[in-house]
Structure formats: C-alpha cells, structure tokens
Automatic annotation (TrEMBL):
<dbReference type="InterPro" id="IPR014729">
    <property type="entry name" value="Rossmann-like_a/b/a_fold"/>
</dbReference>
<dbReference type="InterPro" id="IPR020058">
    <property type="entry name" value="Glu/Gln-tRNA-synth_Ib_cat-dom"/>
</dbReference>
<dbReference type="InterPro" id="IPR049940">
    <property type="entry name" value="GluQ/Sye"/>
</dbReference>
<dbReference type="InterPro" id="IPR000924">
    <property type="entry name" value="Glu/Gln-tRNA-synth"/>
</dbReference>
<keyword id="KW-0547">Nucleotide-binding</keyword>
<keyword id="KW-0862">Zinc</keyword>
<keyword id="KW-0030">Aminoacyl-tRNA synthetase</keyword>
<dbReference type="Pfam" id="PF00749">
    <property type="entry name" value="tRNA-synt_1c"/>
</dbReference>
<keyword id="KW-0479">Metal-binding</keyword>
<comment type="similarity">
    <text>Belongs to the class-I aminoacyl-tRNA synthetase family.</text>
</comment>
<keyword id="KW-0067">ATP-binding</keyword>
<feature type="domain" description="Glutamyl/glutaminyl-tRNA synthetase class Ib catalytic">
    <location>
        <begin position="3"/>
        <end position="268"/>
    </location>
</feature>
<dbReference type="InterPro" id="IPR001412">
    <property type="entry name" value="aa-tRNA-synth_I_CS"/>
</dbReference>
<protein>
    <submittedName>
        <fullName>tRNA glutamyl-Q(34) synthetase GluQRS</fullName>
    </submittedName>
</protein>
<keyword id="KW-0436">Ligase</keyword>
<keyword id="KW-0648">Protein biosynthesis</keyword>
Length: 274
C-alpha cells in the first residue's frame, strides 16, 4: 500500500517550507488512498528539544493534518541503529574517523569541489587508532565507499533508484564517506532515515529537492542491509523574497508566529502556492 511520511527534526519551530512539504506528502497519501506517517527525527539529542516536538504536533494539527499513532521517535530506537552499525563494523565497511572539524575544514579548503567527506584520509594504522582510543578522543563512524565497492562487486554498478518517475543511476562519490554514527550516539540522519523508512514500510519518500542527493547514498545502505528501496519524489522549495530557503532560526515565518498574528491555514496554503 502507498505509504509516505513527513519526518521533521524537533530542532526548531516549523515554518512555511515544512507546511508545504507536509501537505504535499499528506495529499499524495490521500490521493493514493494510502497511509501518511509522521516520524520524529530526534536521534541527535544534543539539538532536539521537547517543546519543539510538542509544537510539531500542534502546528500540523492546526494545518488540518492527521497521522497514524503511535508516532515513531528515533530516540526510542537507538538500540536498532547500534545493531545496524555493529553489523557494518563486523563486515569491515565502516571506520573510525578522528578528524576534528578544523582539520576537515582544511581538507575541504584544499579540495573545494570534492565531496566534503571523500577527502578524509582514513589510513590509520592499528597502533595509531589504539592510541587515539586510549586517549579517549571523540570519533565518527564513516562508511568506507571503497570497501563497500569491493564487498558488493558487480552489484555496485547496478545501484540506482526512481526519482520523480525517472531511473537514476547512483553516483556514490557524490556524498563521499559519510558519517553513520558517532562515539556519543550510534546514529546519523542517513542511518536512522534508511532504517526507519524500511521499518515503517515507506513506499514513497516525498521531500524537498534540497535532499535530492541523499538517495545516491541511501540506496547503498538499503542494499547493504537488504532493505527495499522506496520511490523518491523531490518537490520544489519554498523560498523567501530574496530567493533563499527559510531557516528555522527565522522566527517571523514560523507557523506558530503566523498563527498568533492571525494568519489562517488557508492563507498559508496560498502563500506556499497550493
Ligand atoms: N529530519 C529531516 C529534516 O528535518 C527530514 C529529512 C527526510 O525527510 O528524510 O530535514
């Protein structure tokens, strides 16, 4: 059955862009007589706040949306992400990256057009790694594209997905060796999103075109974990008068402040071109 989702992170109040995205997914589900699921992407507990989560429910209900219960909250499934990370570790497909933000920035400055993380040099000797671990240095778990390529053999060339109805061959180098987990918490947006979409039976992922690159990597994770690949649909972004995307920190366009100023859901629909 057609199943789609809206998956906000409670790191700020929802704004016009979220309203458009949530309505787009919700109405696609209604049209297909399918299911609409709300998921709270709160695996990074350092950035999420309970009041933002409460506001998500309130704002979406105000827009007229309804969703299935119970709502999946990523923070309640950390053991699943940990198990998946351990599986990749035992296959030798992830490695610890001890690079600091500063040294990553220097890498990027040296190769400004390459994918951010592909420039990471991960050739640590066993002794070097043991020393850094003994020093209790923080690290991130990164997916090694070169090892995945070896592991998948001929299957590597077949990786691809449907986006807006067209078959797209995966370009794995686009995102580089991405972070899948951290020392402090065993997850990342990529890992949790892929595992949750499968756990929730999502057949159609509908979200903004700012995330259009992400399936190039997600399809690889789906194959590694033997999960189905949903269809992707990337919708236009809602831009402000300067042609920029709305940021969560811009209070003026939060649904909450617009509601307080007397804007109605119908006016919001018109503002986002629905
Ligand atoms: N939690 C992500 C965000 O707020 C959602 C990305 C997705 O739909 O996969 O941008």
């Amino acid at each position: 059955m057609f199943t789609t989702r809206f998956a906000p992170s409670p790191t700020g109040y929802l704004h016009l862009g979220h309203a458009f995205s949530a309505w787009t997914a919700f109405e696609a589900a209604q049209q297909a007589k399918g299911r609409f699921i709300l998921r709270i992407e709160d695996s990074d507990q350092t950035r999420c706040r309970p009041e933002f989560e409460a506001a998500i429910y309130e704002d979406l209900a105000w827009l007229g949306l309804s969703w299935e219960q119970p709502v999946r909250r990523q923070s309640e499934h950390m053991d699943e992400y940990q198990a998946a990370l351990s599986q990749l570790e035992s296959l030798g497909l992830i490695y610890r990256c001890f690079k600091t933000r500063k040294s990553l920035m220097a890498d990027i400055a040296a190769a400004p057009h390459g994918p951010v993380s592909a420039s990471v040099d991960h050739a640590l000797t066993v002794a070097q790694e043991a020393r850094l671990l003994a020093e209790n240095r923080p690290f991130a778990w990164r997916l090694s594209l070169s090892r995945c390529r070896q592991y998948l053999g001929a299957r590597w060339e077949d990786l691809g997905f449907l986006a807006n109805g067209n078959w797209v061959k995966a370009d794995l180098e686009r995102l580089g060796d991405v972070v899948l987990g951290r020392k402090e918490f065993p997850s990342s947006y990529h890992l949790a999103s892929v595992l949750d979409d499968a756990a929730q039976g999502i057949t159609h992922v509908i979200r903004g075109e700012d995330l259009a690159d992400v399936p190039h990597l997600h399809v690889l994770l789906q194959v590694l974990f033997d999960l189905p690949t949903p269809e992707y649909h990337h919708h236009r972004l809602i831009l402000d008068a300067d042609g920029k995307r709305y940021a969560k920190r811009n209070q003026a366009v939060t649904l909450r402040s617009m509601r307080e100023n007397g804007t109605s859901p119908n006016q919001i629909r018109a503002l986002v071109g629905l």
